[in-house]
Input
Amino acid sequence: MKLSLLALALLSFSCAHQAGLPDQPGQYVETTEENGLARTWVLKIPKGYDGETALPLVILFHGWTGSAKAIEATTGFGEKADAEDFVLAIPDGTEGIGSARGWNCSFLDLGNPKADDVKFTTDILNQIEGGIKVDPKRVYVAGHSNGAMMAYDIGAKLSDRIAAIAVVSGTIGVPGSQVSEPTAPVSAIIFHGKEDETVPYDASHDGLIKATPAPESAKWWADRDGCEAPAETKASDEVIEDYKGGRNGAEVEFVTILDGRHAWPGGLRGKPSIDATSMIWDFFKAHPKG
Output
């Protein structure tokens, strides 16, 4: 009997150990069970991680039809994590419409009907914070397209935990439904191309879906943060509206890419003169949780 109890204890230890996250620099593919689904996500622990210094965390969401692998390649966020010493988590969506991977956010479901992507993201965040030394005041979320909608959704629903979000080609809602009200201020940097053929910039443009226009989405978020009227800066490729003075130092920066389309700026198909990944990381660094 004693031997059986010892064997059981050793087995329990082994299972618990296997269930834990890696704690050494490297790139790993993790699996999390959620609502009966085996959910996969990429974990990148940067080369500079020593287990002593608390590092920032960035969660990155791919767009509809995309994947964790594809968005990392498109954005270069994996290289940025190593260069700037932050932990990176890139979840995979689930197969929904047409077997393409997508996300279920508050107002548009493009993934498996069983998937609860807010819970999935919360589980990832809890796992990382429980096993890797990250700074809870420097947790950030970024996404493209349907993943940008997830960034808005997570920013709103986990506003007590998220310091800032980055939205590329996203929206806060579709007719009849939109993101919930955040309970705490969350800074945001928002990019949108005026020629976006999928998520239209405004009512003067057609797109694959009808959505709340990008300027209205940015203003809605700035209003929730309590920001002041924006200051505008114009350049040959972009117009930046900067909403400052929000509660707890919150800020919203809205970047209109004048001839931009539905792509990550500086990525494989995006406007090469605008490096969205670097701009996002610089914005994140300047906006810890207030």
Notes: The radius of gyration is 19 Å. Residues 2-19 form the longest helix (18 residues). The helical segments are 2-19, 68-75, 77-84, 117-131, 146-157, 214-225, 276-285. Residues 1-18 have pLDDT under 50 and may be disordered.
